[in-house]
Amino acid sequence: MTRRRWIAEHWDEATATIDGAQAEHLARVLRAEPGMEADVVAGGRVFHAQVAAVSPAGAECEVRFNLIAELEADPALPVTLVLAIYKFDRMEWAIEKATELGVAAIAPVIARRTEKHLAQAAEKRAERWRRIAHEAAQQARRSDVPLIHYPASLASRVQAASAATRIVLAEQERTTTLRHAIAEAMTASGDEMPALEFAIGPEGGWAPGEEALFDANGWRAASLGPRILRAETAAIAALAVVASCLE
Ligand code: SAM
User: Fold this and answer.
1) N or C: less crowded end of the chain, CB within 10 Å?
2) Are 86 and 128 in contact (CB under 8 A)?
3) Per-residue pLDDT tens for 52-71?
4) What is the pLDDT of residues 26-37, one digit of tens each?
5) Which ligand 1 atom minimizes the distance to the CA of 200?
């Protein structure tokens, strides 16, 4: 029987606690009682656990678990997705799907063709993106929650120092496919899967100046094939390619 999985907010070597919406659902909807078994994610590790205490109704909802035994954790894909900010509903769909596919981190960036009002609203929206990633990680039975970086300018991300192999997904690229670029990166790192950073453009694509910026900072352009994909489709396709190379 598959035990439900919960992502702890607080933990130590022997116990873990969930609160907020998760605890409400477990305590009030699933009527959790001491002794009930579950899987709990604490600090990127997964444990077989047992409910030890459920806070009484009306009090700030909290469920405490005793951690019984550590279970094998599935590592995230070593991928940071640099996502140019675009229509929030579709971007949030991309965040949910990228989390299901195992992305390690998402860095929202403001690109030249990011609409002004979205760029201004992004900082406030980031908390919602974290909630979406948390819920998707739980649903996907991940053993961690992807990090959602604070929205930043594209230039600051492109020029930031990084040990990762950095690839810009570009629909006009015709020579290098993403699979080819990953294979080369794996050979260069002795068949180890290197840390990867993928950049995906907004609705209107990258502006010419941005393509030059990527090039000047050592990012490699790669193609996902001859068809023009929506940004969320490109994100899913890119992660599926990495997963197929890795898993
Ligand atoms: N500029 C394009 C247009 O409107 O003709 C569309 C941009 S596309 C909606 C958004 C982003 O998805 C692109 O900037 C690129 O990062 C990625 N993308 C879409 N199709 C791609 C492909 N075939 N190969 C690589 N990246 C692609």
Assistant:
1) N
2) no
3) 999 876 667 899 999 999 99
4) 988 888 999 999
5) 16
